[in-house]
Amino acid sequence: MQIAILLYPGFTATDAIGPYEVLSRLPGARTVFVAATPGPVTSDTGFLQVLAEPLSAAPAPAVVVAPGGPTARVPTGDVVVLDWLRAADRTSTWTTSVCTGALLLGAAGPPLALFCLGATLPKPEGWKGMAGVAAASALKLLAMPALVAAIAWAAGVEGVAFAVVVLAAAMPTGANAFLLARRFHTMMEASASTVVASTALALVTLTLLLGWLK
Known about the structure:
Number of domains: 2
Strand content: 5-15%
CATH class of the largest domain: Alpha Beta
CATH architecture of the largest domain: 3-Layer(aba) Sandwich
Structural class: alpha/beta
Largest sheet: 6 strands, mixed
Strand order of the largest sheet: 3-4-2-1-5-6
CATH topology of the largest domain: Rossmann fold
CATH superfamily of the largest domain: Class I glutamine amidotransferase (GATase) domain
Order of helices and strands: EHEEEEHEHHHHH
Number of strands: 6
Shape: elongated
């Protein structure tokens, strides 16, 4: 079992070394540090340098770890790194991150999520669970912001802060819900349909909500 820990200049040492110390002790584990530019990679404080292999050294790892680092140093715009993460995720059992390493997964995730959403959406004749999709969308777009607004009002939240928390609660179902369903092979069609339906309906509900908050 190959475990790939992704490094980049400015990574946080404990975010990479901590997982290495644990995962490298798993039976049968082969842990490798990889980077877009192989060779010595320096941590954010300059205290640690780790010798990394090229990304091609881990074409199909079973586990991927993306350590965190100062936000400005996380290479969310590095196409080479993001492409490798997407390719590795297709075969990995676990694609994980530590702290701000989640920014890397987030940057790599949307294109993959949208592709998978399109491939998973049921054909019109197969939409037998649309009542459930409609109910889930209504809960997310109407019930959730109403509940949050009531709690915020009871807590004395006012003005811009009130508007922010209510709008945040009124956002449509995110693609991460589908990615979780896909990871655990459950309710993929329902979650994909809910993401699409709630996103489309949010054009109306958010417009009305903004008018009310104004």
